[in-house]
Design goal:
Layout lengths: L8 E6 L6 H6 L10 E8 L5 H8 L5 E4 L3 E7 L3 H17 L3 E9 L6
Antiparallel strand pairs: 1-5, 2-4, 2-5, 3-4
Length: about 110
């Protein structure tokens, strides 16, 4: 599965800073822990800092894409620990670059789909 795999749908989202990542995963019945997911962080970055974010994240396999907001995306297995670790990292990165971390969501191909 890749970042642009056909059929991807959002299976979990976490945009409330007060909610623990473990709670977001627990309330998401469509998320499958054993299947890879596209973890997508939503960032509000100054336009002149997007390339810097790309440079900093690329060595760890992240792709940075621009849209209404800036997205940092990577395929990985999700756990409460990995989500919390990446949330902290992305929030720190956004702050260092003069922006904000907005939240994250994860996408998977629904079970039974090709």
């Amino acid at each position: 599965m890749g970042i642009d795999s056909p059929g991807l749908v959002v299976v979990v989202s976490a945009f409330d800073v007060a909610e623990a990542d473990s709670a977001a995963l627990a309330r998401s019945p469509r998320w499958r822990a054993a299947a890879p997911a596209v973890l997508r962080h939503h960032l509000a970055l100054p336009p002149d800092q997007v390339e810097r974010a790309r440079e900093l994240l690329a060595p760890d396999g992240w792709q940075v894409r621009e849209g209404d907001v800036t997205y940092a995306l990577r395929v990985q297995l999700l756990s409460a620990l990995s989500c919390a670790r990446e949330r902290s990292r992305m929030a720190s990165l956004a702050q260092r670059l003069g922006g904000d971390w907005i939240g994250w969501d994860a996408l998977q191909v629904p079970q039974g789909s090709a």
